[in-house]
Amino acid sequence: MNLFILLVLVLAIIAIAQLTKVYDLSRSLRNTREEEVSAADNRLNANAWIVWMIVFFAGTIYLYVKYGDYLPESASEHGVAVDKLMSVNIWMITIVFFIVNYFLFTFANKYRFNPARRAKFFAHDNRLEMIWTLVPGVTMAFIIVYGLITWNNMTGPASAEAMQIELYSKQFDWTARYPGENKVFGAADFNLIGTTNGLGLVTEEGVAAKLAEIDHNLEQTEKAIANGKAEGTMPDSYLESLEDQLYKLKRHKQRILDLKENELNGVSQWKAGADDKLVKGEFHIPIGQEIEFVFRSQDVIHSAYMPHFRAQMNAVPGVPTRFKMKPTITTAEMRQKLGNDKFDYILLCNKVCGAAHFNMKMTLVVDTPEDYAKWLAEQKTFGGEKKDKKEEVPASPAADTTKTMASIN
Amino acid sequence: MGAHSHDHGHHEESFVSKYIFSQDHKMISKQFLVTAIFMGIIAVMLSIFFRLQLGWPGEKFGILNAFLGDKWAPDGILDKNAYLAMVTIHGTIMVFFVLTGGLSGTFANLLIPLQIGARDMASGFINMLSYWFFLVSSLIMVASLFVEGGAASGGWTIYPPLSALPQAMPGSGTGMTLWLISMVLFVASSLLGGLNYVVTIINLRTKGMKMTRLPLTIWALFVTAILGVLSFPVLVSCVVLLIMDRSMGTAFYLSDIFIQGEALDVTGGSPILFQHLFWFLGHPEVYIVLLPALGISSEIIATNSRKPIFGYKAMIGSILAIGFLSFIVWGHHMYVTGMNPFIGSVFVFTTLLIAIPSAVKAFNYITTLWQGNIKFTPAMLFSIGLVSTFVTGGLTGIVLADSALDVNVHDTYFVVAHFHIVMGLSAIFGMLGGIYHWFPKMYGRMMNSKLGYAHFWLTMVCGFGVFFPMHFVGIAGAPRRYYDYSEFDYLDTVISLNPMISTFAIIGGAAQLLFLFNFFHSIWYGQKSNQNPWKSNTLEWTTPVAHIHGNWPGALPEVHRWAYDYSNPEHEEDFVSQIVPLKAGEHAH
Fold first, then answer.
1. Same domain for B471 and B406?
2. What are the chain B neighbours of A37 within 8 Å (beta carbons)?
3. Contact status of B58 with chain A (Cβ, < 8 Å)
4. CA distance B418 to B430
5. Which of A32, A144, A170, A393 to mutate to test binding with chain B, by most B CBs within 10 Å of its CB?
6. A35 CB within 8 Å of a chain B CB
7. Backbone angle region of B147, left / alpha / beta, with phi > 0 → left and psi within -120 to 50 → alpha
8. Residue B117, phi then psi, degrees to nearest 5
């Protein structure tokens, strides 16, 4: 196969070279200059513009007809306004697209070179130029005003009735967090993230456990350093990496000690986490309820994109972001409308975040309020979940010095 | 250099000083061009590699394995990380090395001294350095494809933390380090070049060459150089801060990160800061790429329509307006970063304003064609093609500038379609048109026009064939930089366009072989050129065909009129060179 492709390429280049040679010879026989465009060539290219225009326009219309119905109707309230704005914009630019390209290609065809004619010396015309400065200006003014009205409506602060859901991203999955009955999210801090606490929720027990874990590791590392120094056989570079490790652990401990308990709506955020509900793979929202999503990220920038709701917001580590929307069509209704009983809304990652970026998604289900309440009740709380599993202390890399030593050697 | 250098034509140059460490702007221009063509070949090949994966995901291609080996294309299937590396390096090379270094480097070097009537650039030595920085940075960028872990893979915009943390992806290791080093050198090259262009245009214009008599190519290159000088230093700061975050433990862009089982000891930085700095260069960069192409096409369209460019002063005004506005629109890349929506509104306003000068330019081009007497040289075909891509791609920019609409199409194929047409195709068309047009000036020979015609039509059809359908893919909600779309049911319909898009990409890529053959064949075997083959008015066509140091054998030419006296009724010929004095009673334009 490769050989075949190579052969075709080589033959093609030889063919071009031979044709060029023949062309060069015939040109020198006829005594023509390369820069003089022959009448035949000029006609060919002039006509080609029209052929191209027809193909281009026909192709465009075909694409509009076949693929123009891009997404199903918006399943969110602001999305309806966005779609309206979009179709106004698309109509306008499509019309301008056809008109301007039409003039460009037909002029190219019509005013092809004719030795009997002389081009019109037409250097400027203030009236014309004024027209095509003002017309785009007025059009833009309309687009700007219309666009900004839509933008302001969709980005204003969420109302008091809005329900909050946190969407937490990491390489390469999403977690949805519901604040639970107290309607307050438990505090979260990246310093507390561990195998049993993927979001780093702050609870008194969690803090204590993490501190114990760090203290344990500190002790191990110090011991390893002391041993290494006493024996004198440890390579300097390894000793340095242990000291580096020690420094990092101390800093980590200090960052945790610096955490302050705070209150929100009269609830301590260190205690509020116990009834938070964390779900993966699929999350539900109720129809007709304004929802304010809060986005956080554990590692790199991700982007929460929900195309069926015309919603998107980046999840940025260290900088929480927000986006509000009100779903208007349940998953069941949408399935019916589309005649596709497998249809699902989807949340996907739309900011390149690593190798599995293309697969970082979560199903989103819009329920009736009753179904939603039922679904939510079935979800385990963070506190409850923890009682089932025993807190594990993951082994520190420094704890097992022999193993690391072996891997270095 | 300018004043005394015409003596230099008389003494013999050694091979090294003539072809390698040349300080002659014409040779440096050719060096830039050949380097850019070499980089362009790599970038096109990379794009075909990832288009194979996108068109036929999971299919085995022996050719991928042959080029990329077992590590990056085991069994002929592109590896996921390699895919991202290809996408990233394709974008980086195209934007910076082909369309910034290649386009400005080639044509600013060739045309500025020749069209303003100067012996050479203000500083030949700095000019030479500009090329050598460019070459070294090109080589480093290419070398980064071969390091362990692969080349930088976070997209050409290299947003941290992804690009800052080697733990985040293999491409953020050595590959990213090389990317950053290459980029610092590239900016050095760009600044040395840009300063030289600005100084030369301001100081070394020949007698009579007022700013209002400059050809539009020079105006475009002038504003481009100013944009570069003002915005590239910001990219350096942006990149240097990232280097510090990567290597020195600072936290300009990093905060609250837990990755690979470790809570990093970094707090207080913001990844969004990077985006502000990056796009402060990144958006003017779009016009650094585009404006020279628009300048080139203005010149080619006027010459081959045998008509003055319509609205010369409006064209200058719109170049200046676009240049100015390009500095205050960067935030439209960041509508969904969580930036305050009010700031977003301001950027909506400034961004949509750019549509006005752009529309003026498009209408002026079309009016230049009207009642013209058009000769379809390959350069003219590419220039008309450019007007079409500029208009078609520019219009979709209106959708993207509108923040409310951007939310749903941000980072989808709609964006890919938009910028590839308005910036990619337009700038490439301008560059190719410029090469066909000024090839006689560069090499003293003509390129084969028949091959040029075939090259243009194939490129035009394939260019639109690749990028136009992507609008529909994007508007249906297909994110960019995805390795495989087959798992998303809602995209089934539009993703069926992918094999067609990839086929166009392969044909379009292969069509460039016609150009490569034509280019290199014509350097040695093309028909010998006349002094002024296109019957053009500008000064470069008054220099001898064979290159000499100092450009003009005798005194520098004196300019008496603007560059666009084509078919002037007061003259018999349909062109009047800028050096022809005004007739008694003739009005100057």
1. yes
2. 375-377, 449
3. no
4. 17
5. A144
6. yes
7. beta
8. 80, 50
Are the C-beta atoms of B325 and B354 separated by less than 8 Å? Answer: yes
If asked whether residues B471 and B437 sit together in one domain, one would say yes
**CB-based burial of residue A407 (10 Å sphere; 0-12 exposed, 13-18 middle, 19+ buried)?**
exposed
Contact between chains at A307 and B489 (C-beta distance less than 8 A): no
CB of A74 closer than 8 Å to CB of A82: yes
The residue among B503, B527, B551 that closes a domain is B527
- A314, β-bridge pairs: A303
- Does the beta-carbon distance from A45 to B488 stay under 8 Å? no
| Residue B272, both tokens | 């969004």
Please give the class, per CATH, of domain A163-202+259-388: mainly beta
Mean pLDDT per 10-residue section of chain A, whose length is 409 residues: 76 84 80 88 96 97 89 94 95 96 97 93 92 94 96 92 95 94 90 91 92 94 90 86 92 93 84 91 96 96 96 95 96 94 95 94 96 94 59 42 38
Query: CA-to-CA distance for B260 and B257, rounded, in angstroms?
Result: 10
> How far is residue A154's CA from residue A324's CA, in Å, rounded to a whole number?
8
* % of chain B residues with pLDDT over 70: 98
**pLDDT greater than 80 at residue B494:** yes
- Residue numbers of the domain that contains B481: 392-527
At A392 the pLDDT is 45
Q: Strands of A129-210 (E only): list them.
A: 163-170, 173-178
Q: Kindly state the tokens that stand for B500.
A: 């067609």
Tokens of A68: 């123009």
Is B287 within 8 Å of B327 (Cβ atoms)? no
Domain count, chain B: 2
Is the CB of A198 inside 8 Å of chain B's CB atoms? no
How do the domains of chain A map onto residue ranges? Answer: 163-202+259-388
**Residues paired with residue B397 on neighbouring β-strands, in sequence order:** none
CA distance A348 to A298: 16
Structure tokens of A27? 């040109």
Q: Please give the pLDDT value at position A2.
A: 67
Whether B522 shows a pLDDT value over 80: the answer reads: yes
Q: Cα distance from A89 to chain B (closest Cα, Å)?
A: 7
pLDDT at residue A397 in the model? 42
